[in-house]
Design a protein that fits this description.
The chain is mainly alpha-helical. Helices cover 60% and strands 6% of the residues.
């Protein structure tokens, strides 16, 4: 449905040129959303897919282990959208010992994303509301170190930003001026917690994401915080018990359509077109996460069975296998520490896993060797390589 522009332009002079900043109207949209027909069917399919994903998270025998790696996969993908070049292996090496050879600026950015996500979820589990204060806290963690640390971490911007172009005058989009931010973000916070408008949670998340991206309240990191907002809203609402729904892969694969639909909302008020795209993404991502969890569970069981058949070394081999499941890139020193095995015993058990094709040595060195649960990493990141 085309409602017309969903905001107004505020014109000001800056740098000797006219700047037209877009100020969005408060949510929900007017006229109200048309959630009938094919959109209703798509909403029901997305809700069902999210429900299955939440159910799988409850059945995973090693839920914490899966979350550890899955959250890091999302951190890599979300940061890649912003132009970083780090891989999941880079991040795991950095977390292991800040291993030399990793692209430090990029990997710090990805590591910050993991910390920001952990911080936000921790606060929500303490009962802290999803609010502007929490969004500022998350942003502060996201930009605490590395690139962007000079872009007012944890504070809404006090200057005009823009998207595309070299200046506001030739930008593809200019968000609201800084003096409008407080009222806009207060309205958005009110919408996040509204319960009297009859909107399903997934629809609320879809609308909130567009509004946040349109307001663009920070000098840097808006895209990453805007994507996290969807996950946080679903977790706070109890739709997901664990943070397993991330749209970064879908948005990366359909980047041009994503930006086009954001513009259509602003110019034409076509929220329904955006909702179709968003809900299809939720459905695809949820189904993909369920398949990944099931494949990992099968792989872990098959590898465990191989180790169990290896005779007297099976006990220590299984302990090292568990350590690799927890952190898919490991040193012998760290494995010994995590398993309680002696260094020689941990090394012998790791050699067994290499011989069985479960683990792979990464360095080619005799000392300070690093080992990867390579098929685990490949399974997690195979979609990323295709995106």
């Amino acid at each position: 449905m085309k409602r017309g522009a969903t905001g107004t332009f505020q014109v000001s002079a800056g740098g000797g040129e006219e700047v037209r900043a877009f100020v969005p109207l408060p949510l929900p949209p007017t006229p109200t959303l048309d959630l009938g027909g094919d959109l209703q069917l798509l909403l029901e399919a997305a809700v069902l897919a999210v429900g299955r994903l939440d159910g799988v998270s409850a059945l995973l025998p090693d839920k914490a282990l899966f979350l550890y790696a899955y959250v890091r996969k999302e951190a890599v993908l979300s940061s890649q959208i912003e132009g970083t070049q780090s891989s999941l292996s880079d991040l795991l090496l950095f977390e292991l010992a800040e291993a030399p050879g990793t692209p430090v600026d990029d990997v710090v950015e990805v590591s910050n994303y993991v910390a920001a996500l952990d911080h936000g979820l921790g606060r929500l589990r303490e009962g802290f509301p999803l609010s502007n204060r929490l969004l500022r806290e998350i942003h502060g963690v996201l930009l605490a170190k590395g690139r962007g640390s000079d872009k007012s971490p944890g504070d809404f911007r006090r200057s005009q930003n823009w998207i595309g172009g070299t200046r506001p005058g030739n930008a593809s989009f200019v968000p609201p001026p800084p003096d409008a931010l407080q009222d806009l973000m207060t309205d958005l916070e009110r919408f996040l917690h509204a319960r009297d408008d009859g909107l399903p949670v997934l629809v609320r998340a879809a609308l909130a994401h567009v509004q946040f991206e349109t307001i663009h309240p920070f000098l840097d990191g808006n895209g990453r915080v805007g994507r996290l907002l969807v996950t946080f809203l679903l977790c706070e609402a109890g739709v997901l018990r664990e943070p397993l729904l991330y749209l970064s892969l879908y948005l990366k694969q359909h980047r041009s359509t994503y930006y086009e639909l954001l513009d259509r909302v602003r110019v034409d008020g076509d929220w329904e077109a955006w909702l179709r795209f968003f809900l299809e993404g939720v459905k695809q991502v949820s189904e993909g996460a369920v398949k990944t969890a099931e494949r990992l569970r099968g792989m872990f069981a098959a590898d465990r069975a191989k180790i169990e058949e290896s005779g007297r070394r099976a006990g220590s081999g299984l302990r090292v296998h568990e350590a690799l499941k927890a952190r898919p890139i490991q040193s012998i020193t760290k494995v010994a520490e995590d398993t309680g095995l002696s260094f020689p015993a941990a090394g012998s058990a790791m050699d067994l896993l290499v011989a069985l094709g479960v683990a792979r040595e990464l360095t080619g060195n005799r000392r300070n060797r690093l080992f990867a649960y390579s098929r685990y990493l490949e399974l997690l990141m195979e979609e990323t390589l295709e995106a």
